[in-house]
Amino acid sequence: MNILRNIKILFVSLAAAATITSCLDKLPGSAIPEDEALQTFNDAEQFVTGIYALLKSSALYSGYLTLLPDIQTDLVYAVEGNTNTYGSFWQWDIRPTTSEIEAVYASLYQVISNCNFYLERIDKVVASLTDDDTIETLEQYTAEVHTIRALAYSELLKCYCKAYDPATAENELGVVIRRHYSVKEEAVRASLKESYEFVLEDLDKAEELFAEENVGHSSTYMTLGVVYALRARVALNMQDWTTAVEYSSKVIDMKEVYSLSSAKQLYSSGMTFYDYMWKYDVGTEILWRVGFTTTSYGGALGQVFLNYNVDYTYYYPDFVPAQWVLQLYDAADLRYNSFFVEFPTGYDHALSWPLLVKYYGNGDFLNQYIYHVSMPKPFRLAEQYLIRAEAYCRQSSPNYGLASKDLTTLRESRYATGGAVSLTADNYLQQIADERVRELYMEGFRLNDLKRWGTLYNGGRGFKRTPQTSSLPEGSSLEIKADNPLFVWPIPQHEIEAPGSQVQPNESNK
Questions:
Q1: CA nearest 437: which of 319, 336, 332, 357?
Q2: Do 132 and 35 meet the contact criterion of CB atoms below 8 Å apart?
Q3: pTM above 0.90, yes or no
Q4: How far is the CA of 247 from the CAs of 168, 202, 209, 219, 224, in angstroms?
Q5: Cα–Cα distance, 202 to 413 (Å, whole number)
Q6: End-to-end Cα spacing for the chain
Q7: What is the DSSP secondary-structure string of 74-91?
Q8: 332-386 pLDDT, tens digit each
Q9: Half-sphere exposure (CA, 13 Å, Cβ side) for 336?
Q10: Whether the Cβ atoms of residue 502 and residue 186 lie closer than 8 Å to each other
Q11: What secondary structure letter does DSSP report for 296?
């Protein structure tokens, strides 16, 4: 089946969850006419498109879900004079009523609700059809919906639950699992183990349904490659090192489909393939990107790092890269110039600093005077090399040689010359942690990485910020230990207080 299918656009409009209403309930004001919806192939096709439209939300990959985990940690500094956007995350003053906490939670459950609606009705649609090609197409759509639901639950687990420990997961709080749309289910959190198992069930179903040829780079739809990549990511978080190696290898071995975008091979004059991936959101290593057009797009990932559109003359960044991050890149590392350019700012203090231009904006959007908007890329091949390298090192019988080979392969695609690295029992975690920062900078991985590593990283000391030039005094000296409760975001207060709710709070709620 051609994954670049031509489908009509339908935006499923669901009312935002009010503070008095649990977003676990069916949302009031739904535009879905339950008695009539999803009766035909065209209905199903349009409904799946509507689910993808929900993923454009600025509360998800084009905004909060990507930016906040990295802003909260040690990767950026707030600039004196900034707009205080995301200031509560920068200062670790995160509460159950913080609007971004509520928005991420509500948006993910909104996606899940729509997936459940589709999955509840699709069998009846399939039963009404006789054409094999049409039935096969619907089977692929259903695989996509299972993948999306698994992804949404995995993000809830990442943000609102503790790190997975196989020895204790059965007794830790997971998420509220919603399997159905129309069947009333108790608002109670399953165990962490049960929650992860539900994600794996969806991925098993998706893997079973997807056709082997349903793959392709730069896809705006879920594919078999995304299923494998998500399975590898989930396995890493579950400390299931064997499965993490198995599924990351499935992606890496799809060499006819995916390959690392070279930072030294030119795509055109003055632009490498790696540069092109960030400037135009197309690349052979992108497994899935959130599909934007100039008339339908989500949030502006680059806004808080540039704010060029304040006066179209100067930059007014809310956040600038941490000095220690900039120093991680050596002279041969070509990622530095792809990610950072030094500009003078328009502030009174006239800070001149390497600003993050990774999300400067898609070139086609800039031509339409749409600034700082880039298509999010939640799954890239580079992450799979990093997953496999870490899993190799953390197996009961570590294989530092194979892990070194994976990091070297990744680095050689990013370095002008060199890039080889040798991992050992003593240095592997720091080497992998540093490489994840270099490669995945501001893509939303850092908070969960630190949570996953816990006391293994930095001797359990967490991280400590040291003030840098023109950084905001409040927060610039923050010291966060590895056991800080706010590595796990609080459950939104309205979920706990909703009528009939049995949703248990997190430690960070208190």
A1: 336
A2: no
A3: yes
A4: 24, 15, 17, 19, 11
A5: 34
A6: 51
A7: TSEEEBTT---TTHHHHT
A8: 999 999 999 999 999 999 999 999 999 999 999 999 999 999 999 999 999 999 9
A9: 15
A10: yes
A11: B
